[in-house]
Specification:
By secondary structure, the protein is mostly helical. The protein has three helices and no strands.
Length: 88
């Protein structure tokens, strides 16, 4: 049986691979299309992608780091000050 840690590592590897695919796909678009306001949760594809990265950073700090920022990383991410992403 796979451990919880192994499961987390597998999920991280999968998410990392998918994020790279998304970034490659976004970068194939002309700049105007990358930054076009699409009226979504965040205006552009780049903004949405950056939100995803901030959400990961929030998890590393708030969950895995027990609320303590890692060296060189601020504690305010995702526009949050405390709690879940987008709660602030």
């Amino acid at each position: 049986m796979r451990s919880e840690f192994e499961t987390i590592r597998e999920l991280y590897r999968y998410n990392s691979a998918v994020r790279k695919k998304y970034l490659r796909a976004i970068w194939k678009l002309p700049p105007r299309q990358r930054y076009k306001n699409r009226g979504a949760s965040f205006p552009s594809l780049i903004d949405i992608y950056m939100h995803v990265l901030d959400a990961y950073r929030w998890w590393f700090i708030s969950v895995y780091g027990n609320g303590k920022a890692f060296k060189g990383v601020t504690t305010q991410v995702c526009g949050c000050t405390e709690g879940a992403p987008n709660s602030g």
